[in-house]
Amino acid sequence: MSEIEIRNLTKTFDIKGRTVHALKNISLSIGQGDIFGIIGMSGAGKSTLVRSINYLEKPTEGQVLIDGVDLADLTEKQLRKKRSDIGMIFQNFNLLEQKNVLDNICFPLEIAVLDESGAVVDVDVRPRLYSPGSEATSPIFSRLSTKSAISAAD
Fold first, then answer.
1. Is a pLDDT exceeding 90 seen at residue 75?
2. In Å, how far from its chain's centre is CA 141?
């Protein structure tokens, strides 16, 4: 099974009373470890296709399956959770002007720190004041942030 499967994806926009087809009957499969590039002229629908992979852009027709799960079948809460597994790099970078380079890199890690219930953990709390859940997850987030090929835990 493919990690990402797109089936007969179509996306249309109504612009000034005219229907514009950004995507028309696109199908492709991307397996784990595959690297794909999407190339084309400006306005060809590349960004629309990429944004459809995590359902930031919902298709007019067709399916987007991630690990066999059709994103159209998910609730908004489930979709938000699924999106957290899909890293996105946008062409406009989405950098925060008030943050420096390091802060822009660290910001997604800061907002991703959630406890078991899904509540945001206060990342400014000192270790001696951690909840048991935060104490257990902090080293995990630290290890994952280094993107090591192998992680060992005890």
1. yes
2. 17
